[in-house]
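Give me the 3D structure for GDSL esterase/lipase.
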Amino acid sequence: MELQKMVVLLLFLHLIFTGFEIVESSAHRHHHHHHHHHNAQSKFFVFGDSYADTGNNRRLASSWKMPYGITFPGKPAGRFSDGRVLTDYLASYVGVKSPVPYRWRKRGNKPTGCGMNFAFGGTGVFDTLTPEPNMTTQIDFLQKLIRDGVYTKHDLSLSIALVSNAGNDYGTYNHHNGTAQGFPAYITSVVNQLTLNLKRIHRLGVRKIAVTTLQPLGCLPQSTFISSYQSCNVSQNLLVSFHNLLLQQGVERLNNSSKDSAFVLLDINSAFTAAFKGQHNLTFSNPLKPCCVGISNQYSCGSVDETGVKKYVVCEDPKSAFFWDTVHPSQQGWLSVYSALQPSLNQLYS
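Predicted structure for GDSL esterase/lipase (350 residues):
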């Protein structure tokens, strides 16, 4: 608890707040040294936001516009990146195809065999500034599919879930002029709800559940552009530390109360930080600078004017950039995160 008190104190000392806005409206070859745990019957279920969404967002989202998807699959396909996202790498780890986005499940006989992706960009555990379904509703979707007999108890007993929470609840809090004093209590309510969601997914029968820590929000290009992409926002990252501390405690409590240690924390926060330092043999020219950026503050990656003229520029080599746009990693960025997560991923099969 002392650490917790200290973090809260630091938050108050540092809360010189600058736009905590994570809303994502603007917003790979398999490496054979990674373990693949193929089980013909494995199912992979995904819940969360744009860090995990592979095509659920409606067609108005930037993820369906050029230049998103230029690296993979070669055109925009609903991923908030130039290519693959965390979901795709974890699916390859589980040994299944990337699960079909929930919104496309009825299109042409799309296989629901390897599981399903319920993540929608821009969403949070609570309602955010997007009309897309929050995490509670996403879990309701799975529950309905189970009731309808699409997935059996046996399917679930072999399944793994990814739960991504990348901070949209906090962008929304800020947007609604939430106060600095109220932030610790709000973070606590977000993490409490997230913990309840994890428990509920497990109660539905999912065997192992991986949940991501919050990435260093203060290092996202939307925060670092103020320093010409040279330095992170310390106060935002302190809030992130508080979120991650509470989440770690929540996951420990869940594991202590479940016989099978079903919950695994994927520390993408440390993975981002390692990438910024050039670890894992992937170096990025300037890790805090995005590859695709609007030509001015009013434009974002993918913006065009009414005549169709591009209002953004794209770097020469997306592989050299950790971030694709002001919020989301590039395919290469996600690959470096995935490489850093290997030890935690092994816990999914321990």
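Residues 13-33 have pLDDT under 50 and may be disordered. Let me know if you want a second pass.
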